[in-house]
From TrEMBL:
Gene3D superfamilies the UniProt entry points to: NAD(P)-binding Rossmann-like Domain (3.40.50.720)
Segments passing through the bilayer: none
Stated name of the protein: Xanthine dehydrogenase accessory factor
Ranges of residues in domain XdhC- CoxI: 13-77
XdhC Rossmann domain: residues covered: 119-231
Protein origin, superkingdom: Bacteria
Length: 296
């Protein structure tokens, strides 16, 4: 059975692996790629699929790693040095690639990053509402007791059991490194639960009770909404990270000594080792030309 880019994207999403989906939107003859060609770019710069030759891949790799770091989609216009008429697209990022033999291209780069994982403990109506409302808000919600275990350490955990061994659950979550723990309880009962624990100041800051922003919520759905709103607030403020999403780093860049193009260094980037130093190139053509000049 043919393994498509769509299949691969599904595997990566299921495994909570960050990547960028690249799709050719327009391509001008004699570009080797065609509209609809697509590829996946991983965090190490590996490209799976096809969006053009080596020179195009260098531009795509650099832009994709930047898009992954920023979490923002990019419409990339890759133009040869002597680009002819090619309809402009407002808002597109333009890269002039001196190695292209011709054929301007537009490629849409969409970062696909792991969603914040929220683990919900309990079988109450509030727990059910959290699962229902969390998905549209961009969270991956896993409920305890459903036979499905969280695929990673959750970003947030909500305890909606209305009793039980809540101190033990909180202690285990803190020790596991969960960034935000919400306890659904009245102020009085919540204070009583916390009194059973010995918490550092930093640990206490990670526990919210009563969980949720004060919006005057009454129904289970409204309470769930207030809890998710508090989690969104934590995410947007940068206080709640996604534990299994490695912080995206700026790509390592190098300048091709032949054509002067800036390239992102990855496992597939052509290079030579000269006098013990790595020299990186946009493609094998520039590499071979440089090797010949250097007497290699």
């Amino acid at each position: 059975m043919t393994h498509t880019i769509e299949d691969r994207a599904g595997e990566l999403l299921a495994g909570r692996v960050p990547f960028v989906r690249a799709t050719v939107v327009r391509a001008q003859v004699p570009a080797s790629a065609r509209a609809g060609d697509d590829a996946i770019i991983l965090a190490d710069g590996t490209i799976e699929g096809f969006v053009g030759g080596q020179c195009t891949e260098s531009s795509v790799r650099a832009a994709a790693l930047g898009a992954m770091r920023d979490g923002e989609s990019v419409l990339l216009r890759v133009l040869p040095e002597d680009a002819g008429p090619f309809p402009d697209t407002p808002g597109a990022r333009v890269v002039v690639n001196p190695c292209l033999s011709g054929g301007a291209m537009e490629i849409f780069l969409q970062p696909r990053l792991p969603r914040p994982l929220v683990h919900v403990v309990g079988h109450s109506p509030i727990a059910a509402a959290l699962a229902e409302l969390g998905e549209p808000l961009g969270f991956e919600v896993v409920r305890a007791g459903t036979g499905t275990q969280p695929p990673a350490t959750p970003s947030a955990l909500v305890i909606a059991t209305h009793g039980g061994d809540e101190p033990a659950v909180i202690r285990a979550a803190l020790d596991a490194g969960v960034g935000w723990i919400g306890l659904v309880a009245s102020p009085r009962r919540g204070a009583g639960v916390l009194a059973e624990l010995t918490l550092t100041e930093a640990e206490r800051a990670r526990v919210s009770t009563p969980a949720g922003l004060d919006i005057g919520a009454r129904t289970a759905a409204e309470i769930a909404l207030s809890i998710l709103a508090e989690i969104v607030q934590e995410v947007r403020a940068g206080r709640l990270a996604v534990p299994d999403r490695e912080p995206a780093r700026a790509p390592r860049l190098a300048v091709d000594p032949v054509c002067g193009m800036t390239v992102a260094v990855g496992p597939d980037t052509p290079h030579l080792v000269l006098d013990g130093a790595d020299v990186w190139f946009c493609g094998p053509g520039c590499r071979d030309r440089y090797a010949t000049t250097a007497g290699r």
